[in-house]
Structure formats: structure tokens, C-alpha cells
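Objective 1b. Sequence-to-structure analysis of Alpha/beta hydrolase.
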Amino acid sequence: MTFALLSGLLLAAMTPNTDRAAEQLYPARPAALQPSLSQPGPYAVGVTTMQAVHPHQWEPASQRHEDRTLVLEVWYPATVAVNAVPATYNNVTKSGLPFRLQGHAWRDAEAVQEHSFPLVVLSHGYTGYRTLMFYLGEHLASHGYVVAALDHPHSTNAEIDAVQAPFQGFLNTLYHRSRDQQFVLEHFRQPNSPLHRVIDTDTAAVIGYSMGGYGAINTVGGCFDFPAASIQALTGSSDPEQTAALQQLLNSCAGGQVADSQIDPAWQAAIAIAPWGGQHRLFSASALQQMQVPIMFWAGDQDDVSDYAGMQWLYDHSGSPSKYLLTYHHARHNIAPHPAPAVARHDAMDFAHYHEPSWSIQSINAINQHFALAMLDCHLKKMAEQCAYLQLSPTPGEGQVTSPEQSGWPGFPARYDTGMSWQFRHEAP
């Protein structure tokens, strides 16, 4: 990929395009047929784009220290003025085709000042982009959270040539994912950071999809322990000395710590969506067992990227007093992204980045909104009534039905609760 083309793609992803009509991905559906916690909350939502620079970071590709610039999309409870501008989100598909999506937030609206709100760090996969789960950012902000989604450098659609050099940024991703997540939390702790006054940085959660989930597990205590065989398979290393050096580089914990790691006490919940790495046993089993942060996993039982057995292994070995596993049956890996934009529907590679063969993506997104809100309300805001949405029977059909209109799972309407199962261990926060 030429420098000029790369610059053009990055510009398309970061700047508004007033010439291209914004696309609405979510046609209206009756609220009575949706999970109850997927409905918008009491707050209007503002969104702003900003940069955060993590200085003097080691870059594996260049083998030198560089400033690492993260582009953030931040959603927050807002006060909307009469001249408010509706938010749109610009990005590119894996093949580099630009698109523009219509959001439900308001661009650069004034933040609600009367309260401070918990912080949620939202982390995409490889490759992806910061607005891949904008539906989740907007939803949580409407219920009283500040959600900061980041573009992970060397890991976005705009930067990676998915045809000619699809794994160009993969080592960077392995090394930086948890470091990036931890840095976002630390960035908002700075008194001069935007929205500092409205963010409770002592109360935070991390949500990660695929490689973002790989990072999230590490961020809350699932330390990396890369086997030599996995290093060789993932990087192509055949030199034992090089393999050992890569193990030393990658085996870190909780945002890049390498010895006597301490989990940041602000992390009070994590959601790992289709997390990658369990199938390769990249995490220390003993570190997983010592985890204390409540964690939720979402997995497709037909996932051929992260492998369902690998995700079940992660759940089984997690020692968190509160842990949950939502399984989407007959789903593959794409259980986090927004629906495919129209431009992606003409190319198999682009469409495959969003499509699920057996599920409606809009339905999955609504279920994700429901369970994410239940998880964060229960474990960050300590709302005991919300914890009831996490203590479920293995399947909806095995749960107690309280009315003909309701499912055996609280919050789900009857007849609209199929295709899922649940595992959990719950300790009251």
C-alpha cells in the first residue's frame, strides 16, 4: 500500500464527509419485542472525537520507541441545544471503501455536569475501527456511562492492506492491545483531559471484541504466557533465540507490566466478546484462576476464528467470583459489529466482516446492549435489581415464566428468546 493511499484512507476515516449521505443501519422495531434493557436510557447522548498521545512507546515493527497516537470516539450523557448537530460516523471497509453512518448521538453536545459517570473503554478487533460498536457506545451513554472507543494503531481497516499484507500489524496488536486499554483509563485521569470532570475514573469497565477481548482479559489480570509453539505458529519464527525474545516481549500483564503486576483497582467489570487467544492457550492458567474482576464472555458456538472450545476454556479457568458466558448458538465470530453498510454488500471480504449466516445482526446488537447494561449496572453502579438479569437458567425454556408475555429469562419477551444459552457464577457486588 502506498503512503498516499494510506493517508487518503486515514483521512476518510477521521474526517466528516458532507457529500456522502449518512446511512441508517437500524430500522425501527417494536420495543415490546426487544430485550428490555436494550431500550434507550434517560440521557441524551453527546459524542466527540479526540486524540490521546501515549509517549515513547516501543513499536515492534520499527524496533524503536515512538509516540503512539490514539484516536478516540467518546460518548457521554449530554444536554442537547436547539442547534445540535446529529452525529455521523465515517470509516472504510476492509477493502478501503468509504462509508458514512447515521448515529443517534449529537456531535460535540455539552456534557451533563451534575454528575460524574463510570468510564467504559471499548476496544475493537483486528482489523476494525473505533465506531465498529457505536450502537453499544451510544446505548451505554444514554444510561449514564462515558464510553471511550479507540482506534488501535496498526490495527484498523484504514491502515492494513487486507489483501496484500493482512497480518502487517498483528505483532503490534499482540503487544499493544492491553497497553492501549490501560492508557485510555490513565489518559482521562489527567486533570487537563477532555471530560475529566464528568468521568469517574475510579469506576471503569473494559469491553473488547476479538483481539480487543484478548486485551481485555489481560487488562483485568489474565496474564499472557505465550507457549513457544504458539509464538512459532503465529509469527513464523523458527529461530529458538528469536522465539524466546518474542516470549519475553509479549508475556506481560495488566497493561504491559512484566513483574509483580497490579491490576488497576478502577477495573470493576470486563466483557470479552468472541475473545481470541484461548484456543492457543496464550494466557496463564494460574493467572486466570486468580482473577477477581467480574467478567462476562459472549461467544458463538460456531466461531471459527476464536474457537468456541478456546472461549469455554477461558470461562472455565477464570477464577472471578462473578463470571458469565452467553452463547449464541449457530453463530460464528461476528457477534459484535454493527450491521454491514451498503457499500460492503458488493464485496465478499467486506461483507464477511459483518455478516452472520444464521442471525440478524440487529438482533444480536440489541441482545448485546441488554447484557452489557445489566453487567455494568450490576457491577459498576452496584444496582442489585439489575443483577437479576445475570442470574439466569441455562436456557430461557428452563427459566421461570411469570406471565404469558415474558420469557424464562427476565427482560426477554416470550417467543423472542431462542438460540442462546447461559453459564454463570454470581457473587453479589
